[in-house]
Design brief:
This protein is of the alpha+beta class and about 290 residues long. It folds into two domains: about 100 residues, no CATH class; about 170 residues, YojJ-like (1 (3-Layer(aba) Sandwich). The chain contains twelve helices and seven strands.
């Protein structure tokens, strides 16, 4: 404890600046990784390295200490290669001056987005046109948005109907709606779930993609089956099927319409609020795409 007080008493202004710069760099890196799949990998590397370092220090394991010292140098070379996409995104945001900006949509914009989606989904369901719409909340979705065709448009039901018209080039993929409440891209590619806990093992690609993206992010997905026209919503790796337009609107308002809920989307209370709205059992259906 005396050594700690000695360090604090003898710290220089230059050291404070040095520590502050390092802290800002680390914060910028972690902020840019937030919500990405790479964040889990980075967290695992840090936990493993710190855990082994503490183990080697307290138990005075010389061989393990030697291994960690040599591995650290190799890790400094490997990290830029492993996380090249994330580092590139970080530099792009830095150049655009929007490194720490989130651009979160207001509640009015969110309500407009909900109304347009419900209006479009109701018609898509009637026509049995398949659709997959992803609503971004707090998790980052840049790596999935970039897989589609960039759109950057206000959310309008007419545009959604046009995108998901079966004879268009963009219908077979996901429409990504970003934090600003705008359509960021269309025909985006999403990861498929490997879970076996689905309402039916014959679940089609769209429904598996909706569950897959919500397993690794806090996004909200709206799905329309092209075979039956049934409307479903996925969140937190769970899928609720056979929703009527009014019930869909209630679910979207509970999960997406309130900015305070969106900001606290990771809290157990939020999920409880959302899934209470969805709690009415839905009958299982045969495989849908």
């Amino acid at each position: 404890m005396q050594e700690v007080f000695w360090v604090i008493a003898n710290i220089t202004p230059g050291a404070i600046v040095d520590i502050t710069i390092v802290a800002l760099v680390l914060f910028a890196i972690t902020f840019s990784f937030r919500g990405r799949q790479a964040a889990t990998l980075l967290r695992g590397i840090v936990i493993a390295f710190v855990g082994l370092f503490l183990l080697a220090t307290f138990l005075r394991l010389q061989a393990l200490s030697w291994l960690l010292n040599n591995a650290f140098t190799a890790l400094l070379v490997a990290i830029p290669l492993i996380f090249q996409n994330e580092l590139r995104s970080l530099l792009e945001k830095l150049g655009q001056g929007r490194l720490f900006t989130t651009g979160e949509a207001s509640e009015d914009i969110r309500m407009s987005v909900i109304n347009e989606i419900v209006k479009a989904v109701e018609k898509l369901s009637e026509r049995r046109h398949g659709a997959l719409i992803v609503l971004q909340r707090s998790s980052g979705l840049d790596e999935f948005i970039s897989t589609g065709v960039q759109v950057d448009s206000v959310v309008k039901s007419e545009l959604l109907l046009t995108i998901f018209w079966p004879k268009t080039e963009l219908h077979d993929g996901a429409v990504m709606i970003n934090r600003e409440g705008r359509i960021a891209s269309a025909a985006a590619v999403l990861p498929l779930t490997a879970s076996r806990n689905l309402p039916t093992p014959k679940m089609g690609t769209r429904h598996r993609a909706s569950v897959g993206i919500t397993e690794i992010t806090d996004a909200l997905c709206v799905v329309v089956s092209e075979e039956t026209g049934r409307i479903s919503v996925a969140q937190a790796g769970r899928l609720v099927m056979k929703l009527e337009p009014d019930r869909l609107r209630a679910v979207l308002i509970a999960a997406y319409g309130d900015t305070t809920i969106s900001r606290a989307s990771g809290l157990r209370a939020t999920l409880r609020t959302v899934w209470r709205t969805m709690s009415t059992p839905s009958p299982q259906v045969q495989g849908e795409r």
